[in-house]
UniProtKB/TrEMBL annotation:
Lineage: Eukaryota, Metazoa, Chordata, Craniata, Vertebrata
GO process annotations (BP): endoplasmic reticulum unfolded protein response
Gene Ontology cellular component annotations, sorted alphabetically: endoplasmic reticulum; membrane
Annotated Pfam families: TMTC_DUF1736, TPR_16, TPR_19, TPR_8
Keyword Metal-binding: no
Name of this protein: dolichyl-phosphate-mannose--protein mannosyltransferase
Pathway participation: Protein modification; protein glycosylation
Start-end of each TPR repeat: 329-362, 363-396, 397-430, 431-464, 533-566
Keywords on record: Endoplasmic reticulum, Membrane, Repeat, TPR repeat, Transferase, Transmembrane, Transmembrane helix
Amino acid sequence: MVLSEPYWDHHIPLPKLGPLHSRLVTAFVALICFINSYNGDFVFDDSEAIINNKVAGIVGRADLLCALFFQLSFLVYCKAFQGGDKKFPVLWIFSSILLCAVAMLCKEQGITVLVSENMLSLFLPKDLWTDFYFLFSTQIGGLVSSGLLMRLALLFLGGSFLLYARWRIMGTGPPSFTEVDNPASFAENVILRIVNYNYYYSLNAWLRMCVFFFFFNVYDSVFYTLCVYRTLTFGLVLLAIPFLPASNLFFRVGFVIAERVLYLSSAGYCLILAYTVGYCSCHWKKHKVCAATLTLLCVNVARSAQRSQHWRSEQSLFTSALSVCPLNAKVQYNVGKNLAYRVNQSAAVKYYREAVRLHPKYVHAMNNLGNILKERNELEEAEELLSSAVHIQPDFAAAWMNLGIVQNSLKKFDKAEQSYWNAIKFRKKYPDCYYNLGRLYADLNRSIDALNAWRNATMLKPDHSLAWNNMVILLDNTGNLAQAELIGKEALKILPKDHTIMFSLANVLGKQEKYKESEGFFLNALKINPNVASCHGNLAVLYHRWGKLDLAKRHYELSLRLDPNAPGTKENYNMLKRKLEQRQRTVG
């Protein structure tokens, strides 16, 4: 490339590191971040989010992986110029396109590395004007020999193929988002959309200029890796091009503002900043430039430290957004969801209600709020919310299932059955819905339909413990003990450590007077969970019927110790005591 030109950072009044040393420093800082984040301590960027699965979703990881492969693709492409602009190895170009494909599979903006590489070819080569002279002089042979046309052609063909592949992977259509994800993109008024989009762009520009969140790590690697390319234009390209897929210009995106979409653009910012500092060093006093640069670095590191505190937990992360976007329904929803996860339902209801107030068509907030109200036995309001949710979004399968559960609790069995089938209609493979449908049929004494529904649940989800257990219990209650035994043993082949199925199967075997086998399942269940009063109580009944009265007495007492109000246990224990007393009198 332009290795013969002087480094444009030569005048920056800061210590210089060679390529090897800068890589070592960057690797060392990355290792420190990894170690700290592994223990949940401070980090400068989102590496904590990658390690802590409770905080980071798959989306953030995809963006970081995309940024990694974007940079690798770009650096590999630069290898094509090491021998000068006249000759370049095609292998490096294909390797760059392959890495671009990986970046694109992680996140769609990875494809923009090819655009950046095109700009690199056009703006950076030293003999650019020679190439254009050949072009406009119709001396195409000279242009081809320079390698520019070949590079551009390979990048264009590779990019076209990757775009087609991505389009097919997406189902030949853009992704679908709801209005709450990106309200401005759903505005019918064009002027309103334009105004909101420009507001979003200004906020992203502010974030990018400040780089509060991820400046420290990117700065070193980009500053020292890209310092050989003496062009401000390319810095602007790297700043703007990776952001284009998130700009809503080509297709609707599923967010309003996200720090993660600025990872790649921050590289362009750092490049321009280094260029600007070098330029200022030639015109201002160096000690002033040095002080300003160090101040900027310290401010960004301090702000990064402050921001990373929010990533210590989901609660602090979501709550921090409230101070920025208190009128954003999705922020209120996220806070409520986190509170519900931590079993603080009263507080969760408050935030869910606020989310619905701010966005009356927010079906996910309605669904979650309806679930909490269902658990609090506020069934009428829960039914109203869930009915509104499925009316707004008729293909919302989870809301249909939850509506069916509420209607079942309200004894509206016909409506509940229809709601369950609507859920299955919109989500073919829905084992939980089949399980709840089976419960409905069991309540209606439609045993065969219940068994079929639960069998469907286990076929779709073989480890669905509740469906297996309910089949065993239903067959037990209807007197089909042999079939219940077969189902229970089939279930334990898939779930060998499930103590609830062991308990149900042990009851079945006890009724068949298979005492020894029944005892084994009871004891195995108690090994897994020794504090289940009903298991001790039923094992005591087994021993009682088996004639092992001392063991029966011991387990009756254990059961009553765990649950003094266990139904039937106290009466059975009193019967056993009378029998033991009678036996002692007989012996005496």
